[in-house]
Every structure is written in C-alpha cells, then in structure tokens.
Design a protein that fits this description.
There is one protein chain. The protein is α+β, with helices and mostly antiparallel strands. The chain has a domain of 107 residues. 26% of the residues lie in helices and 37% in strands. The chain is built from 5 helices and 9 strands, in the order βββαβαβαββαββα. Strands 3-2-1-4-5-9-8-7-6 form a 9-stranded mixed β-sheet, sandwiched between helices. A hairpin with a 2-residue loop joins β6 and β7. α1 packs parallel to α2. The longest helix is centred in the middle third of the chain and has 16 residues. It is globular and about 60 Å long. The mean pLDDT is 86.
C-alpha cells in the first residue's frame, strides 16, 4: 500500500485567498486502486494527515510505503500498531539517521560486505534508449543502529543504487531505507517500484 500526496491542479484561487486542495491518498499499487483519502488543509500538513488516513484503513498484513516526508516515528508506530509493516525512505528530514545509514553502507560496500550479512539483488531494465540497473542491498545487522535510533519494529535497513544510462551519459543515485520487515532485497526491489 503506497501513501502519497497530491495537490489538485487549479483547485485554488489566489485572488479569493483559497488554497489549493491537498490530498493524501492510500493506493493498492498493484491493483491501481485508491483505498482512502484525507485532506490536508492550510492548518494541517501531510505529516498530520497521514496518521489520520492510516487510522481509517485496514492495514493488517500490508506493507506500507510512504515517501520521505512520511519517515517519522509516529507514522511508523501507527503502521505497526495496525498490524502492518513499513518501508520508509530516509532523507534529509531525518539527518542523523541518514548520516548513519550512509556511512554504514559506504563502509560496508568498500569492504564488499565482508563482515556483514547483506542480501543482494540486481534488476536490469532497458527500453527506449535507456538502460537502468538497480542494485539492492538489505541487511538485518542493525543492533548498532537500534542503540542510536529507536524506531518502532525496525528490523532491517537497505540501500538501492540506481544507475541510468541514456544518450551516452550515466547517472547514479543512492537511496536509503528503513523497514520493519526482515532483510529481503527482492521484496525491496518490488516495493521500490512504488517510489518511481
């Protein structure tokens, strides 16, 4: 289940001081079905709308993915309390967590994960003159992280490296994740499609 926010185009009117309609939606991504929506008005942003939306949904057994804006402990706790698991991208809104994960994966990659159990999975996609290689690493060796960051139900961390070649140029990006699921790089690869 993917949680995402969208602003309805042309729904606001600056002359009348009407803000654009901002909705947070829950999607059954494989079925392409909206499961629920919650509005976020001028007094309430996405971070407070997400828990309200999660509360009205039946989540038991689901994997909930949210963009980095939703990477908050209260949201992770709501997901876990509803019997679901989370996969959350870690970015600048969680700076110390992002730094710790980045350093960890840089060190482990440099040592080829010699002293760490990591599960690796690679996917290759080529179409329309574009080649994309995605490398996924997931590990449950996170006792060190749990001592520094207390996330509800945290069981694994992951790194996804996306290398895209197009028109003779190559770009590489790195993406960090935390999850309440056991380390599973194949599951991570499937869930990563939601973040595109």
């Amino acid at each position: 289940m993917a949680i995402d926010d969208e602003m309805a185009r042309r729904s606001g009117d600056k002359r009348k001081a009407l803000a654009a309609l901002h909705m947070v939606s829950a999607w059954a991504s494989r079925q392409r079905l909206v499961l629920g929506q919650e509005t976020a008005d001028a007094k309430e942003n996405e971070i407070s709308a997400i828990p309200k939306l999660l509360e009205i949904l039946e989540l038991e057994g689901a994997l909930v993915t949210i963009d980095a804006m939703g990477c908050h402990k209260t949201i992770a706790r709501t997901v876990r309390d509803k019997g679901a698991d989370y996969l959350l991208p870690v970015k600048a809104n969680q700076p110390s967590l992002e730094q710790d994960l980045d350093l960890f994966f840089r060190e482990k990659r440099a040592a080829n994960f010699a002293d760490c159990q990591a599960i690796f999975h690679e996917t290759v996609d080529a179409d329309h003159g574009r080649l994309e290689i995605r490398r996924h690493w997931a590990t449950a060796d996170i006792d060190w992280l749990k001592q520094r960051h207390d996330w509800p139900g945290l069981q694994s961390i992951a790194l996804i490296e996306r290398e895209v070649e197009r028109n003779g140029r190559s770009e590489t990006s790195r993406h960090l994740y935390i999850s309440s699921l056991p380390a599973d790089a194949v599951c991570l690869a499937r869930a990563d499609e939601v973040f595109e």
